[in-house]
Amino acid sequence: MVDLQIDGLVSTVMSTDHATVAEEEYLQTLFWLQEAELPMTGANVARAMQLSAPTVHEMIGRLERDGYIARGEDKVIGFTDSGLEHAEGVVRRHRLIERFLTDVLGIAWDEVHEEAERLEHAMSPVLEERMLAAIGDAKTCPHGHPIVGGTRIGGVPLADVSEGASVQVLRFENEAEDLLHYLKDSGLEPGLHGTVTATSGEEVTVTAADGRECTVTHSVGETVSVIADPSPPPRIALPEQLVLARERYGR
Ligand SMILES: [Zn+2]
Ligand SMILES: [Zn+2]
Questions:
Q1: CA 121 – ligand 2 centroid, Å
Q2: In the 8-state DSSP scheme, what is residue 158?
Q3: Residue 226 and residue 147 share a domain
Q4: pTM score, two decimals?
Q5: 210 in a domain, yes or no?
Q6: Would you say residue 249 lies in a domain?
Q7: Quick one: what percent of the chain has pLDDT higher than 90?
Q8: Has residue 126 been placed in a domain?
């Protein structure tokens, strides 16, 4: 009897479909590329994760063998149903954890990304449900990304907006933590309303409604999505602008 129960338990555990932590990291990055409407290619994954091409190539092969992705003849990657489900799950948990850490635990928004990277792989559905209840009405992570897929609002890069336009900050497209520290120091944050009072090839300044001046480099301005009035035409970010790991912004 006992043996039978143990056998049953083992076979239940074995048949559970589990991606490894590394696989989840890659699935998450692919999801970010898809959201940003960038081609899901090994080169873009390598760029976003700041990893070498051979390393990425090997892991892409593993994801394909494990049935999470499929590759077309043009080398462009697509999610399988199972891959998309895993990717959406890990991205949702990441953003939910970040929101929980800022709103419930009071941690600054530039210090939660790396914590979420660690916790997102080890969360049970029950804990996820509890956290979701704890964050109340919040719909995005503290950097402006929707927790539930399919609710992303379009936007334009702050760097494209002309002087005199009014802006509302939607989100920070990159979450490399040192970039978040820089943005925090600048005074910009998702939800902030202001006016672009200076812009050049070097820097962009947004003056907030309360008179505070927030200045970032032009290259960082490329990664800040805003709603602007008047608005420049929408455009897709350049692949080198989506970086989720470590910093690469000359400052
Ligand atoms: Zn994050
Ligand atoms: Zn975030």
A1: 16
A2: G
A3: no
A4: 0.86
A5: yes
A6: no
A7: 73
A8: yes
